[in-house]
Amino acid sequence: MVSISCRLHWIWVSALAAMALAGCGGGGGGGGETTPPPPPPPPPPTCQPIIDSSGTPVACTDALWAGGGDSGDAAGADGTAGDGDPLVGATIRLTDAAGRTATAVTDSQGYYRMNVTRMTAPFTLMLTTADGKPYHHGYTLATPKSRGFITINISGLTDKLCSDMAVLAGKTGAGQLTPALLAANPSAASAAIRNLATALKSQIEAAGLSTSSFDPVTTFFRPNRTGLDLVLETTAVYIDSTGATQVVPKPQTACTLPSDWRVGSNRCLPDVHPGYVASGSTIKLSDNAGSLVGSSEYACSNRVLTPVGTPTCAAPPAQLPCSAPSSSWAVGTASCQSDTTPTTLESGTQVTLRDTVGSTTGSIGWSCSNGALSPVGSASCTLAAGKCAAPASTWTLGEASCQADTAPTELSFGQTVTLTDSIGPATGTATWNCNAGTLVPVTIPFCATAPEPACGAPDPNWTVGSSSCSADVLPTSVASGSSVKLTDSGSPTTGDITYSCSSGKLSVSGTPACVTEVSDDCSTADLAANGWSISRSTCFADAMPAKVSNGVTIVLSDTVGPATGSATFRCSAGALIRQAGATCTEPGP
Questions:
Q1: Is 466 exposed, middle or buried (0-12, 13-18, 19+ CB in 10 A)?
Q2: pLDDT of 460-487, one tens digit each?
Q3: Which pLDDT value is given to residue 45?
Q4: For position 262, what pLDDT does the model report?
Q5: Dihedral-angle region of residue 268 (phi above 0 means left; psi in -120 to 50 means alpha; beta otherwise)
Q6: Which single residue of 170, 239, 269, 452 has CA 20 to 30 Å from 419?
Q7: 3-class DSSP assignment, residue 17
């Protein structure tokens, strides 16, 4: 591309050459004056490279400038497209206020550059992914800079800003934002950024950025999981059922859920969109509200979202009919019965049942929706003139409360009924008469609480651990509301236990006790069985007591052959200890 100054230089040189030729006219060697040679041409002007948003020089001869501009007024736009990960190979289409367009394709870092020389702000941008899917949108109000670049990032956050401004203008989503809408309300952009900064305050501050200066459009970034890229990493962006873009803070390892899913040409939208699913978890999205119904399940592992199973999205099955509603209903104590027998209902239809005969009159409405019956309006049911509603099934007298053994029913004019409670704990009767639609008590209702039954005699034996005790005195029955304490004061075990009686039921009160006494006396059973031995001879006492008190010494003798002898034993803390001088010998041959 040749600059204006370069073209002027060549025009000037061509003019000098023409003048030189004119001064050298033909003739027969006349003696005209000789024309001096022209001065040397000035050196060609130099063109300094233009620095883009990444700090990289872009030469004046770069193919980016082909088709518009020269080294004097060339202007560019660039930025990064990403969602935490770079959007690689995506096509970005920019539209200016006059409807002119420019396009660029993102590199492996999601970075793009485009020529916007002599284009007019404001601009809107649309990103189409490498596989041809329309995705995020962007915008800027910035005017192109002569010999400079303006930064216009494209991400889920810029899509949210475009969506908010479009919705404010009466549109449904980011794709409907135009340069004209931006120009009509330029302050909407700053308001949208402030709202976004407030919603993502924790994510912005965690990334080391300031909410007061936060701007996802003009802040140049690289997909390195720091700064603005870290905010994108910790934010889920999706399109809701109205077409508006929504953002939700999420853990860095979580996965953003898709806004919809498709099965063939069918597209389903989730009834509820949580925004993301945590790493190590699965989630099932369902569409039950639209003309198409279905579900799609996903699993997340460290920011990688994987479909689980096969998604569904199809027309809902035929609506189910409803079974016939009940022919009877009640309102308060009045019960109604439909004049006609109800039948099944088709889905989407209603029926009203009426009771116009008998002692009650009323109506009830039902509707059917895909096999489910639901009431319509309020049911009514009232007693015919002269009838009385069923009397209350409970009555009281003082602190006693009675309940009728059988549920009472409505009464005819002049009818009398006696309600009886024979079950307890309170028993009694109440008599009512129906007088022209009004219940009148015939007698004063009676209700009294029967005395609580006593408890039988408790078990005289009880065990605590390995010790078993037995009551010194055999117990007798225990009155309701009272207690009895059993005591074992004998030997070798001692202890006590307390029982309480309530309405004929015994229960243990407190903690039972039972311990076995430990004696220091010595038993002689082992000595009687085994005797005492001296060398190879064993002697057995002619007689010995069953036990020896602690500290007592006994002398035992064996006077019956074959071995004879004597020994002295002392009882010490339960053990018999043989003293010195014991003898036991057998006669010689």
A1: exposed
A2: 998 998 888 988 888 888 888 889 999 9
A3: 57
A4: 94
A5: beta
A6: 452
A7: helix
Distance of CA 73 to the CA centre of its chain: 57
Are the beta carbons of 301 and 274 closer than 8 angstroms?
no
Nearest Cα to Cα of residue 20 among 35, 34, 10, 33 = 35
All residue ranges of the chain with pLDDT < 50 are: 1-31
State both tokens at 165: 């401004």
Q: Which tokens hold the place of 468?
A: 């078993």
**Contact by Cβ (8 Å): 502, 451:** no
CA 525 – CA 83 distance, rounded (Å): 93
Each residue of 96-131: b (16+ CB within 10 Å) or e? bbeeeebebebeebbbbbbbbbebebbbbbbbbbee
pLDDT at 53: 95
- 4's tokens: 């204006």
Q: Which residues contact 77 (CB under 8 A, 6 or more apart)?
A: 94, 102, 113, 114, 116, 123, 140, 144, 149, 150, 151, 152
**Is the overall model pTM greater than 0.70, yes or no?**
no
Two structure tokens written together for 253: 């390892």
Report the pLDDT value the prediction gives residue 39, as an integer from 0 to 100: 79
Three-state DSSP state, 575? strand
pLDDT digits (tens, 9 = 90+) for 389-415: 889 999 898 888 999 999 988 888 788
Q: Do 267 and 133 form a contact (C-beta atoms < 8 A)?
A: no
Three-state secondary structure readout of 161-220: HHHHHHHHCCCCCHHHCCHHHHHHCCHHHHHHHHHHHHHCHHHHHHCCCCCCCCCCCCCC
Report whether 92 contacts 107 (CB < 8 A). Answer: no
Report the alpha-carbon angle 198-249-204, nearest 5: 50
Helix%, strand%, coil% for the chain, nearest 5: 15, 40, 50
Closest CA to 336 of 407, 373, 384: 384
Which residue carries 């699913």 as its tokens?
277
* pLDDT (0 to 100) of residue 171: 96
Residue type, 446: F
Any residues with CB less than 8 A from the CB of 509 and at least 6 apart, and which?
A: 483, 498, 499, 500
